[in-house]
Each structure stands twice: as structure tokens, then as C-alpha cells.
Amino acid sequence: MQYNAKAPYIVETHWQIEEVLDGDSIIICNRFTQMKKEIRLYGLDAPEVKLNRKMKEDEEKSSLPAQLLLQFGLQSLHFVLSVAPPKTVVTIITEQENYYDYWNRQLGYVILPSGLCLNELLLQNGYAKATQQYYCGKLAEYQTMNRQAQLNNIGIYSQIKVF
Which of 87, 111, 112, 150 has its CA 20 to 30 A from that of 81? Predict the structure, then answer.
């Protein structure tokens, strides 16, 4: 992951994944203080894993039934669990200018021990779509990754063209 030297970032180390909530949200725990917080992944949106307000919105926007969207949400969740299961040590990088989302969750790029970015893995493998709703400085790159997964019929895109 390349960072713009001009954009101020906050880098947090010594965290591990406590729980994977869905394809775009995790709970992390500080390895020393045991403090916990939720991280919402920048620049992407994965299908929901339970029926809720957002599921109804997604159903209307996509014209796909909730049951199908739930299946896609579970596929996204399982992908995250396969590459970043609980206890995985992560580094969180947050853009100073764009720290919290509408629901007051911290936004972040989740960097895995391999140096790979979880946000990017989800997009490259077709388990999330790029969105402006959780804006980040890498949005244009994320839209390109998303389009490439779509064109290559990868992940969820192997079953459907748009979600």
C-alpha cells in the first residue's frame, strides 16, 4: 500500500482482531491495554450478514432479495475470517482528516502481518464493492480494483454482476 506523504496518517500498532463482525467491520483489541474498538474499513461496502435497516436499503438499491444478499454477506465474512481470523495482529492506519464515519466508528486501513491491506484484499477478490460512503484517499484506486474483480468474475461477482 502506497501512502501520499502529504496526507497525515495516524498509525496504530499492537492491535489484534478480537472479532470479525462482517466483511467491512472488525473489533480490535490492544495487546497491552486490552482496550477494544470497532474499525470500519475505508472505501468499501460488503453485504450485510443479518437483516437490518441497511439490508433493506441494499435490497431496494440492488433489486436483489435479502436472502441472496445475506448469502453474499456470509461469503464476505468467511473471506475475512480466512485471511484475518481473530487473534491476527494488525496495524490500523487512519487518515487524520477522515477519522470517523457517520455512526462514529473509527475508519481504517487494516494492515495484516504480511503487509497486505485487508481493504484491498476484499476488493481485489470481489467480496466488497468500492463506495464513496466511507470515503478515503485511495477511493479511485479502490474503484479500479472493484471494476477489475467485476470484469474477472471474482468472488461474489462470479455469481452476479452487481451487488
Answer: 150
* Sign of the torsion angle spanned by Cα atoms 108, 113, 119, 120: positive
- Reported as half-sphere exposure (CB side, CA atoms, 13 A), residue 121 has a value of 20
- Across the range 27-47, mean pLDDT stands at 97
C-alpha cell of 26? 472488525
**130 forms bridges with which residues in the sheet?**
44
- Amino acid (1-letter code) at residue 108: G
Which own/partner pairs from 147-150 qualify as long-range (CB within 8 Å, at least 24 positions apart)?
Answer: 148/124, 149/123, 149/124, 149/125, 150/126
DSSP state of 139: H
Three-state secondary-structure class, residue 86? coil
- Residue 157 to residue 72: CA distance in whole angstroms: 10
**pTM exceeds cut of 0.90:** yes
Residue with cell 484491498: 120
